[in-house]
Write a structure and sequence with these properties.
With 258 residues, the chain is an alpha+beta fold. 43% of the residues lie in helices and 20% in strands. The protein is built from seven helices and ten strands. The protein has an eight-stranded antiparallel beta sheet with strand order 2-3-4-5-9-8-7-6, sandwiched between helices. Strands 1-10 form a two-stranded antiparallel ribbon. β8 and β9 form a beta hairpin. α2 runs antiparallel to α3. The radius of gyration is 29 Å and the shape is elongated.
């Protein structure tokens, strides 16, 4: 009785083994790197107004297009299917690792000396005096600092908390010039403190000194007003009496608006 013929084996499956999967996984990681690079190029091109979610959406879109294109090219050919499977699997693994690095909470900077050094570097980049509250304000240490291209400098105290938006117990926001106030602004001109005009604007307190504005955004108006007494130029060990007065036009503008 004739024996049934055995199905011919694929010589490539024994010759190359797991190599196509590994090559595909490497290609998948490379495609993920290209997608991350695309958002970095957009940022370097000057598109800084995007939210972090927009950059993540761009990464995912570019990644999906590249992976689908490679899989569509490789899948129809049986000898390239293992490469396609490796590409999808490698890119998914890399995406999971990247998501873990982004989503796992990291401790905030906690050394006030290091943060003060960063504030000193930010001070050198702007053309006005930057103020903070020293290494500690009330129970909150100087925990972080921030700076953007507009010249804004933030000295951040306490621990950032909140699920959707990060809220600091005290944020000392330094900006050059006057904020965009108008007659529709709900502000209240307070009595001068440390020789300069002070305004309560909604939940914050604004201090006008020299040619800059200091916005104190704490967890209460009482904390903001206490912070006015603690203001000092970056690098100074303690407050230094009255602050430099702003131009007379600033007070007249505030009296007209508030």
């Amino acid at each position: 009785m004739p024996q049934p013929l055995a199905a011919p084996s694929d010589p490539d499956s024994t010759r190359w083994g797991w190599l196509p999967y590994l090559a595909g996984a490497g290609a998948g990681l490379g495609l993920l790197g290209v997608s991350v690079l695309s958002s970095a190029l957009v940022y370097l091109a000057g598109v800084e107004s995007w939210s972090p979610g927009a950059y993540i959406a761009l990464d995912l879109l570019v990644w999906m297009v590249l992976v689908i294109a490679v899989a569509a090219w490789a899948w129809p050919a049986p000898r390239r299917r293992r490469f396609a499977i490796g590409t999808v699997g490698g890119s998914l693994l890399g995406l999971a690792v990247l998501a873990g690095l982004v989503l796992v909470p990291r401790p905030q900077a906690s050394d006030p000396v290091d943060v003060a050094a960063r504030l000193g570097r930010y001070q050198a980049r702007v053309h006005y005096t930057v103020y903070d509250l020293g290494p500690r304000f009330q129970t909150w240490p100087l925990n972080d600092a921030d700076h953007d291209r507009s010249g804004r400098v933030d000295a951040l105290y306490g621990t950032c908390s909140g699920s959707d938006t990060c809220g600091w117990p005290m944020d000392v926001i330094n900006t050059r010039g006057l904020p965009p106030l108008s007659s529709a602004t709900r502000c209240h001109l307070l009595s001068p403190r440390r020789g300069v005009p002070v305004v309560r604007l909604q939940d914050d307190v604004l201090v006008f000194t020299g040619r800059s504005t200091i916005q104190l955004s704490g967890d209460s108006t009482a904390a903001d007003l206490a912070a006015v007494r603690a203001l000092r130029p970056v690098g100074r060990p303690r407050p230094t009496g009255d602050l430099p007065r702003p131009p007379a036009t600033v007070l007249s503008a505030l009296q007209h608006v508030c």
